[in-house]
Structures
1.
Amino acid sequence: MDKIVNRRFLAIIGGFALLAAMPVVSAQAKGIPQVININTQVNMASIKGLPRDRKHVNSFSHAQHAKVYLKGKEKYSTYPYTDAFTCSACHPGAKSAEALLSADPAATLGAALDKAGGSKKLMKYFHNICRQCHKKVKKAGIASGPTNCNGCHGRK
Ligand code: HEC
Ligand code: HEC
Ligand code: HEC
């Protein structure tokens, strides 16, 4: 192949590669977030009446909780869920994964906070979900998550 044909050939191959990659990218964008930093004041500033930002939780293993850790642990949860639909353990009242993924996260959390006593109760809301489950699972003698403050708030 001479240089020009070669370049055209590469451009065509490149075009196909892009086309092939596109559906993968959009499927990932729609998928459940793998790891997230939980800092409501920073991430969801549109929620009204939040307390002053004092703490956050870095590198929360979101997908690992939803797909692995929560399986078989319904009885330790503050909010009801099933092994087939774990989302509602931490997104109280959620109807489906699809609904959660297509909604505005701040609107979803804002509504959940309202139901749980208002956005001033941010700490209580999250401790009720996260720390309560860890405490109960630990008490049952099963591998659990942190219950001490630094275990959640001191993470990189
Ligand atoms: C063990 C707790 C837990 C489980 C289970 C869980 N999530 Fe989450 N998720 C969170 C937390 C905490 C946040 C950040 C604060 C918030 O939005 O409530 C979050 C945020 C999200 C967000 C918004 C992400 C962003 O960009 O801000 C989506 C979408 C989401 N979760 C979907 C899901 C779906 C779908 C499931 C079930 C397959 C699920 N979650 C299961 C705890 C959980
Ligand atoms: C219904 C129970 C349940 C809920 C709700 C829950 N967890 Fe956990 N979490 C677990 C279990 C069980 C483990 C340990 C799994 C293992 O090691 O096998 C764990 C592990 C962890 C760990 C350490 C391991 C890792 O992957 O980083 C952290 C940090 C953690 N959870 C944070 C949180 C936070 C923050 C929330 C709330 C947004 C939360 N968890 C909600 C059950 C729960
Ligand atoms: C299992 C995880 C976990 C443990 C253990 C934990 N917390 Fe939290 N805490 C959270 C999460 C998640 C939030 C919500 C953070 C956010 O949205 O910015 C939170 C919020 C807070 C807030 C409010 C932060 C703010 O910016 O408004 C304070 C204060 C706090 N925790 C203190 C503590 C103290 C003190 C301890 C120990 C006695 C502790 N936490 C243990 C997960 C945990």
2.
Amino acid sequence: MKTTLFILSLAAFTSLSASDAIETVMKEAMKGDASLYKKVATGKGTPEDATKLLEYVKALPAESPPEGSAASWKEKTATLVAAAQDVAAGKSGATAVLQKAGNCKACHSEHKGK
Ligand code: HEC
């Protein structure tokens, strides 16, 4: 039991220090109707926009979210990176996949906390 508590507090501490990168990606790439993500996911972005978005989301898998399991985070962020990669590569139908992978609520309800 004591070990579990120790590991839990360690995990909480780690996610606290690592969450800055997630916040940066959210603020700079995801937030708002005119966001980089919105542009790219709706097919209005340039190839450069798509590559930029890919660079942003690539930072996510290595981070630890404030809440939720590591397995779920890994899966969601990997799906998001793969979708951004496909859009950047010009794959047809990729924006629809990206819209699903970037679903704000689906990820926030499990990982955002607060
Ligand atoms: C793959 C998961 C995931 C997806 C998809 C996602 N978010 Fe987030 N978002 C997070 C997590 C985790 C946090 C909490 C970061 C923290 O507090 O450390 C967050 C936090 C935020 C924040 C608060 C940032 C801050 O200043 O603290 C905003 C704004 C935000 N997200 C916007 C969005 C929008 C808009 C979308 C959809 C277009 C979106 N996010 C999609 C995981 C995600």
